[in-house]
Amino acid sequence: MSNQPSRRAILSLYHSTLRTSKSFSSYNFRNYFIRRSKDTFRVIQSESDPARVKSLYAEATRELAALRRSAIVNQLYGGSRLAVEGQKPEMTRADT
């Protein structure tokens, strides 16, 4: 029987998942996966059963692999920015 993942490994997986979620070019997908990642790791953090933590960690690892593949496809076919996304302000001569 192997040990449960360490706190450092769980945090590393969490940060990798958030980083991948933020790489989606589509606003709706990006916000959905960020919210879902936070919810998933909140459940892992609150769990006290070592076997359950291990299974949740393994599932999150598989989801990260699928999320990375999905992010690549989304970046390839990403559309234009939505109105709710922050637009870059245009620079004028007076601003420089």
Automatic annotation (TrEMBL):
InterPro entries: Complex1_LYR_dom, Complex1_LYR_LYRM4, ISC_assembly_LYR. GO terms for biological process: iron-sulfur cluster assembly. GO terms for cellular component: L-cysteine desulfurase complex; mitochondrion. Residues 8-65 form the Complex 1 LYR protein domain. CDD domains: Complex1_LYR_LYRM4 (cd20264). Signal peptide: none annotated. Pfam families: Complex1_LYR. Belongs to the complex I LYR family. This is Complex 1 LYR protein domain-containing protein. It comes from Lentinula guzmanii.
